[in-house]
């Protein structure tokens, strides 16, 4: 059994002061994918830079204080890779992957976008390039007899069931028709599977992000934008999926919650 968790930490140094390290000490996950780390390795305090029992690969953004992804694994990776051969995005701290025996695991932080701005244009450019990468990645994995899981903050709610207030957000970044259609292409054309939705087909959510504004968390007025997206063979071996939602607002160490899936591999 291999347990994989993904979480956007919303600044790992801030999260460490709010309970992330205590969570990390208690978790039984085998691989942890992090997004929005917002720090270079040299900026991390010793308790984050030196994690006994973990092998870590960090990919910082060249834009200080933005993005940043990482993968922590209890087993030493056979191979690591930062970026996906993109001239524009490989130094943006948005993608890192590792190879374990028979399994490629990636951490993704897809741009959030903002309607009518350059940020949305950037998101669209990223999506166009990344779909090509996903298609190539699946083909390479199949040739090598490997399975793939791309974990992370995809910053798109795919279906109406994936956000509480979907009617009010139809013109908002993250739920635009063209973004949702792109994610459908990831499933229908590139052939990947949304594991949490497969295991919870009739559930609203389960949400993984709640705004800090208002009482979104207390009202469970959230979005499901943190995914495990896998090759079909691995999806067939996913046994359980859960969102590790904090018991109370005060116990949160990020505006996202960890999403954990157990795979029978």
Automatic annotation (TrEMBL):
Site (Important for catalytic activity): 226
Keywords: Hydrolase, Magnesium, Manganese, Metal-binding
Pfam family, one: Exo_endo_phos
Taxonomic superkingdom: Bacteria
Gene3D superfamilies: Endonuclease/exonuclease/phosphatase (3.60.10.10)
UniProt keyword Magnesium, yes or no: yes
Record: residues binding Mg(2+): 8, 36, 153, 155, 255-256
CC cofactor note: Probably binds two magnesium or manganese ions per subunit.
UniProt site (Interaction with DNA substrate): 256
SUPFAM superfamilies: DNase I-like
Site for Transition state stabilizer, residues: 155
Gene Ontology MF terms: double-stranded DNA 3'-5' DNA exonuclease activity; metal ion binding
Catalytic residue list: 109, 153, 256
Protein name: Exodeoxyribonuclease-3
Organism: Kitasatospora kifunensis
